[in-house]
Amino acid sequence: MELKQLRIFLAVAEELHFGRAAERLHMAQPALSAQVRGLEDELGVRLFLRTTRRVSLTRAGESFLPEAQATLAQAEAAAAAARAVAGEGAELLKVGGVDSATAGLLPQVVRRFRRDYPDVEIKVNELLSAPALHALSNRHLDIAFVRILPKDDHLKARHVLTEPIVAALPADHRLARRKTVPVAEIAKEPLVIPARSNRPILFDVIHDYFRSRGHEPRILQEANERHVIISMVAAGLGLSLVPAWVTQFQRDDVAYRPLQDGGPLVEVYVVWRDREVMQSALAFLDYLPGEPAN
Questions:
Q1: Cα(247)–Cα(259) distance, rounded to whole angstroms?
Q2: Of 60, 73, 97, 157, which has the highest C-beta tally within 10 A?
Q3: Using CA atoms, how far apart are residues 128 and 145, in angstroms rounded to an integer?
Q4: Distance CA 124, CA 106 (A)
Q5: How far apart are alpha carbons 16 and 47 in whole angstroms?
Q6: In sequence order, what are the residues at sequence separation of 6 or more whose Cβ sits closer than 8 angstroms to the Cβ of residue 276?
Q7: How many CB atoms lie within 10 A of CB 291?
Q8: What percent of the chain is modeled with pLDDT above 70?
Q9: How many C-beta atoms surround the C-beta of residue 52 within 10 A?
Q10: Which parts of 42-111 are beta strand (E)?
Q11: Which helix (H) or strand (E) holds 269?
Q12: pLDDT single digits (tens) 95-137
């Protein structure tokens, strides 16, 4: 198994499209497909389900994804450490976590940090909470943003963000004319949300929200990628409930509205190793809001 194969696998996993992945990596698509088949043959499993209309990860691919990310991060960290010792590169700070942090909170924090610490290179990866905590424990990450508090004594946490869930609707939907949307009206509509196997915390938050108010959500379709969900909403296939950070992806054919009762909330915590000695990681924490959670 080569690092090149892992980079190609990650590109396809993130794009879920062989053509876009090939373009992103400046490769010919047949060569990229051959590399993926070679990796699958070496592992003895199929990593992707391919049809004429879509590409998706298999369960084996979903399991392989965080490990591939961690392996590449470790390889890049080793290279950066060697260059830094030789005076040829910057210290590498590895940050990863849930989408609300990597897309909503981190851009402004990283800009401020890099202004004050120009010699520190920052690598950011989007990871679900459980893989992010695992990567932090194994030193594949230095800072993790997650939606659950860690149970390990060697990890410390701080609450940094509370984010509401909002409704995503086709722009021409009758509910889009309202300033806020009642949950009873949402419950009458078909929903497009992530599968529990992919985003268990968000899935449970949405289901608990409906059931605590005496409703059962009508799940029409499950989709895991945010751009796919919003595209399905735009096509009129259903409504969705999404974290507020998704509203930064504005489209003329999609409207975002708060839920009338405020809606459910999702929390984000920053987690780091207790007794951390990496000064750039400790300095990074000073740029984040919140008080220690444990």
A1: 14
A2: 97
A3: 9
A4: 9
A5: 12
A6: 142, 282
A7: 7
A8: 93
A9: 4
A10: 48-50, 55-57, 91-97
A11: strand 265-273
A12: 998 887 777 788 888 999 999 998 898 988 888 888 899 889 8
